[in-house]
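In practice, a research group might receive sequence data for several interacting partners and want a quick structural hypothesis before committing to experiments. The following worked case mirrors that situation: the sequences arrive first, and a predicted assembly follows.
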Amino acid sequence: MSQLPSHITGSGKKRPAHADRTPVYALVGNPNCGKSTLFNALTGLKQKVGNYPGVTVEKKIGETYSQHGKPIKIIDLPGAYSLAARSPDEAVTRDVLLGRRSDTPQPDRILCIVDATNLERNLYLVHQILDLGRPVILVVNMMDLAESSGLQLRVDRLEQALGIPVIACEAVNGKGLVELKLAMSRSDLPLARHSWDIPVAVAPAVAELQASLTDNDGRSPLVARAEALLLLTDFDTVRVAGSTPLSARTTDILATWQKHWEGEGTDWAGTLVGSRYAAITKLCVDIVQQTGATGPTTSDKIDAIVVHPLWGWVVFGGVMTLFFLSIFTFAQGPMEWIGDQTASLANWLKATMPEGDLRSLLTDGIIGGVGTIITFLPQILILYFFIGLLENTGYMARAAFIMDRLMSRVGLNGKSFIPLLSSYACAIPGIMATRTIEDPKDRLVTILVAPLMSCSARLPVYLLMIAALLPGTTMPVLTKVGIMLLMYALGTAGAFGFAWLFKRTLLKGRPPMMIMELPPYRLPGIKDVALHMFERAGLFLRKAGTVILGISIVLWFLTTYPKHPDATAAATEQIAYSFAGRAGHAIEPVIKPLGFDWRIGIGLITSFAAREVFVSSMGVIFGAESANDDTTTLRVALQKATWPGGAPVFTTLVCFTLMVYYVFAMQCMSTVAVVKRETNGWKWPLFQIGYMTGTAWLVCFVIYQTGRALGY
Amino acid sequence: MSASLKLSALALGVTARVKDFPKTGTTFVRLREMGLLPGTPITFIRAAPLGDPLEFKLRGYHLTLRREEAEQITIEA
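A structural hypothesis for the assembly, expressed as tokens:
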């Protein structure tokens, strides 16, 4: 009964012959086995990237052609160590393979890719997949690395033993791709001679669960058996997001067996995993031979320096410095260029279109609003590129390894480090980089606190406020730098403080763990990194674009309507008369305790588009609109601004408070849009706006009132 | 039965065999699926610069574990 009849072809579902529809392959493998490289090599640029509905897991579908020129569809499934899913990513992989996701076609064939340097662990997943009884092609990748570490792999023997096509491959340089394409083009694929003895201790439970899954959960017999084995490997697997709930009967059976075994002291999961590994070890005996010397590999030698107690920090510091230098130096030119282009587009429209609301909407609303965000695109692209490079080379895992200790103090693990660090430049790539964090709660906490890291859009605000800080005097440079550093420190402390708080209260999770593979170092595939960068950027533009466009239009509307009765009124008067101006007045009672007047209130409202908009809004409101970015004229104008009673608005204390406000407040529609996308709904972005802006208010209140009491 | 000690106490560069670890808990089920089973040879490579986590080598790949987790795994020479 524990033997799997090799003639059973797939599930009971009838599917049309391959001739009249495009065959669908699923590409599956462990993380770090070169899966993405193979996918890119097979499909080139013919890829579609999106999200699986309901979960924030990347869905990648590509197309390639068979030997005969017929199209083949390939779904690149998220990397997984096991089908007993532990993260949303792994749940997607499992559900697609089991044909449980209605939004994705069930793959006709499965392309398993394994890393030749650690075949046993990689074959574990393959072993589970073979349980499904579907046609499988096995790709043994990184043959070169295996060889250089003295491993000899007899791929032909593996093919004989399994009875399925096994292809030796080096995806990075395209070796083995032709053979793979040939195998993929075959109209018939043999099923694996896959048989292993389910341990006697658990066999009755497997049979009972299989029967129940077939009868009560509508699974086909083979899928039911595979699923029964997964459930017994880890009961928790059903609780992972995206899983369909089991029928009451199946749940009952599971609970009964669990209780029975617990009473008996049977280690059922261990027995099951152990017997799989035993089967794999038996399989590998004839296949893997250690021939050469087992001296340290190149990767080991690199690691001796990169994670060295002393040199490790030097390298780490160097990499991070390079990270930021590249963002700020390389992005500068393109950012200015885009700024100039959007400005000249707006000017061109102003020159060609008759004056009116439509022109205003296009130039001030859409080009002005969306343009501001687009200006940040070079920075975002460079960040993506750098993050991709770190992931691709294997340094990302080392950075997490080095920083884990520090991150664990606030209840996170090392994987949150790079996303938070990236957020110093821009929270958007940072938030999108959180996808490498498996634990959903850790990921959410990281997303929630990431925007507290002072991003580059806050810089113009900080600079303006520092310039306006001490009226009439020029401050020593050191003081300015000190204040700037203080703002960064404040944001960082806030991020870690809130991470600590959230992990203890709202998102109390399992004790954090740090089970992570340190993959061997690899030369980065520039093509893979570039592709990744454009995919991410495209996703950001497409998904966040609509929200950004919408908010831009709303903000434009608020500053344009109602029209000032005097058509020749200056911009300053118009904005004061508009909804935004009225809103500024309306919120004045709320922000007055912070020392802000209604005009600053307008700035707070309009800079929800992006923080740096505050500077241009102040320019319009205080009538100091200057063509260049020189803040001097604006500074002078700000210093002249007074409360109705004649007291200056921008006192040192107010300027300082305002900076602190921008440290904490959620003033970025792009981040809101990205958080909405990454958390699948409005709940968390709204919470984020609430807690961040609430904190900003509270902290500013304390600072301003204390400052006042001290006589500033 | 040979003397058993904790995985976290393994000396640098030394290889031992895994003896036992907790039967339940997501962490340990996952470790099993990643090939850390009783009898598996495991080598302690290094600790992170700050002393935690720890890096081990098993079945041809490198794995990190927090000290806390390594303390729950016993090994034998």
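Before designing any experiment, note the following. Chain B has one domain: 4-76. Chain B touches chain A through 32 residues (CB under 8 Å).
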